[in-house]
Design brief:
Oligomer: single chain
Helix content: 55-70%
Shape: flat
Largest sheet: 2 strands, parallel
Structural class: mainly alpha
Radius of gyration: 15 Å
Distance between the termini: 12 Å
Amino acid sequence: MIETNRAEHMRMLDRQILGLLVSRAAASEVQPHEFAEFLDTHIEAIRRLSEEHPTPLAERIGKAAGRYRFR
């Protein structure tokens, strides 16, 4: 297992998520002033994808949590 600082890891993940969402907005030709609205609608689309995923969410979260040991 990987030992890591939980807060540092969460900040890193948030930066990655933001970078991906900025890239996704650019691919959708979203203008900077439209980004907040894009986030709201895209998060809803991601929620639907998660609900449609064939593997139950609890299983996916458990698998991801098993990769880390936070200290």
